[in-house]
Known about the structure:
Blueprint: H1 14-24, E1 31-32, E2 45-46, H2 54-68, H3 84-87, E3 95-99, E4 102-106, E5 130-132, E6 141-143, H4 148-153, H5 179-184, H6 210-221
Antiparallel strand pairs: 1-2, 3-4, 5-6
Amino acid sequence: MATRVGSKSICGCLTLLQAWIYEYFPLFRPSQILQAPDAPRASSWVCHRFAGGDDARQRLVRYRKMLDEMSGEDVSWTPYGRDAGTEVLRSLYTGVIRFADVAEGYDPARCHRQFGYRQTIPPTMMVPKDVYRPASCSTYIVFWEGSMDQLWGNLPSHFLHIAIDSDLCEYPSEADEDYMDWYRTRSHPRIINPDSGGVSLQRPVLVDEVSYVIIVQFLMYC
């Protein structure tokens, strides 16, 4: 929702988002310092606050151009190691993750390459069973199928099924032949659209996104 043209802010753990960007996209990394082995990984990045105004707008244009010109070689696909999925087995869990009263769907099938595997077309995205907001409450209550605690506690039944040997990628950005065709119909190939003077086009709503769009519209307008 934060990437939509009408959005003016973003919420959530932005430190986690920034750290993820630095890990996977070397072009945007700030300087890094050595840390103790038990120190938080994200604290090794030395970030600087930039001024606003014209300089900020010029940086924005420059960053967009850098993103458009990136290739698979400019991505660090497995910054946490070649066998992250094997060494950290829980990262292959697929289902709902809960922290306190916040629950989010987690589907590693959408990012096989981050685990060193060839990317395939992922299954239909997970959506909540129901969602509503009581009149006396400012937050939404979301219901997921099944018990979240039971899903997390029964890991073997909710793992991403990958043929470890046959699905290993030969090069970091490898994907099935039909994956990129599938991806282009669900995302913008470029941030700066040369055919519309920089105005982004609306991407089509596809069958496997209908439920998601309904929920987002509900959250935005109810």
